[in-house]
Input
Amino acid sequence: MATTVLIVDDSKLARIVAGKALRSLQPEWERLEAGNADEAMVLFDSQRVDVALLDYNMPGRNGLELAAELRARFPGMPMALLTANVQDEIIARARASNIAFVAKPVTEEGLRGFLSGAALRLRLGAA
Output
């Protein structure tokens, strides 16, 4: 079964950039996109999602608020917070919630460690 990644970002360009890096690093993984937390929750209710890449600054709920909802439903899901808002408080809140932090603009190098760890966690969980 293919691994499915949901990219949640209110910027279409940011979703394209993250998707391009993802495709380069994990070409066999499937990609879904949502423009905000509400759209993301609809996808989580209707499809299987294995990994989440969440923007921090979005209209409505921010990425950490969405991550808290997802963590309650999917405790072991690999998640990363993608943001240009590189403040110690945001990084600390992400890490306290067991969410990786990836600075924007998203690059292959920036995503590589997170995706490698996510792939390993998914393989170990399936074993």
User: Anything to note?
Assistant: The first strand starts at residue 4 and ends at 8. The radius of gyration is 13 Å. The chain has five helices and five strands. Helices lie at 12-25, 37-46, 63-73, 88-96, 108-126.
